[in-house]
Amino acid sequence: MSTGVRLSAVPAPGAAQAKISLQGVGLRYFTREAETEALSGISLDLAAGEFVSIIGQSGCGKSTLLSLIAGIMPATDGAVLVDGKPITGPSRRIGYMLQQDYLYEWRSILDNCILGAEIQGLDLAKARARAVQLLQKCALGDFLHHYPRQLSGGMRQRVALVRTLVTEPDVVLLDEPFSALDSQTRLAIADEVVDVLRDEGKTVILVTHDIGEAIAMTDRVIVLSRRPGRIRSEHRLQFAGYESKRPTPFVARSLPEFNEYFNMLWKELDVHVEG
Ligand code: ADP
Ligand code: MG
């Protein structure tokens, strides 16, 4: 029975300036042996405070896209704008969290969290106070002086999130941040992470190959085609009874629309076992 899921194309944003605007973005990698076209013709606007997920098969250019937004490398075609201005390099306004937590084992949790602030030469007393506040918010207030090896995988990823947030970026890029975690931990951490990011008013791009994670955690899903990655479709997620406030990831998974979205996106991704 249909629950009336609306998986409609997203209308163009209105007059308000987009927080992030990708305009005809393309990227080719050049190596001595070959040229690889990783992305082609990507145009996408994100409003401030929006949570968008990007899904697509391995190798379709998801990480490449985040690297362009993070200013780690320039696009070979098109433009990437943040607050209407072209990205020219890494910026404090953009935080980037990776699949691996990259915590330093010899630094305490608190000291790991202020690493970015140290590198950027920010006020460390302020950074430390902010880190403590964020660690408390992530239920890690009792672990400030512990070391990474004393924490579980889910706790370590939360520390990595806090470290990303301590430097106060407006935009947070998450590249498969939970893929190293077991499925139960992933479910538990999703609620907490979304809660903190929403509360902090961040604009978020979540890259994942996990369709369920995309549906549960974000407002809009962008599906990329196989390489070169192009936008195959984009869908705003809607849940009946939750028009004004998004359900938490855990609740979203229990709603009837979840399965319908899942099946639709599964078909769109055209997943098949290669071999
Ligand atoms: P995804 O994150 O979706 O798995 P990537 O963005 O990592 O995909 O990679 C997209 C394509 O670009 C892949 O074919 C990959 O092999 C290629 N690629 C990624 N990084 C480089 C690089 N530094 N040099 C050459 N090719 C690369
Ligand atoms: Mg990747």
Quick synopsis:
By secondary structure, the protein is of the alpha/beta class. It has 9 helices and 10 strands.
How does this model look, in words?
The chain contains 9 helices and 10 strands. It has a 6-stranded mixed sheet, with helices on both faces. A 4-stranded antiparallel sheet has the order 2-1-4-5, with helices on one face. The chain has helices spanning 62-69, 109-113, 115-119, 124-137, 153-166, 183-199, 211-217, 249-252, 256-269; strands spanning 20-30, 35-46, 51-55, 77-82, 85-86, 94-97, 171-175, 203-208, 220-224, 231-236. By secondary structure, it is an alpha/beta fold. Bound molecules: adenosine-5'-diphosphate and magnesium ion. Adenosine-5'-diphosphate (ADP) binds at residues 29, 31, 36, 38, 56, 58-64, 227.
Task: Give me some keywords for this one.
binds adenosine-5'-diphosphate, 9 helices, single chain, 275 residues, alpha/beta, six-stranded mixed beta sheet, binds magnesium ion
The total count of helices amounts to 9
**What is the C-alpha radius of gyration, as a whole number of Å?**
19 Å
Largest sheet: 6 strands, mixed
Uncertain segments of ≥5 residues (pLDDT<50)?
none
Overall morphology = globular
Mean pLDDT: 90
Number of strands: 10
Portion in helices:
25-40%
Spatial order of the strands forming the largest sheet = 6-7-8-3-9-10
> Which ligands appear in the coordinates?
adenosine-5'-diphosphate, magnesium ion
Structural class: alpha/beta
Strand content: 15-25%
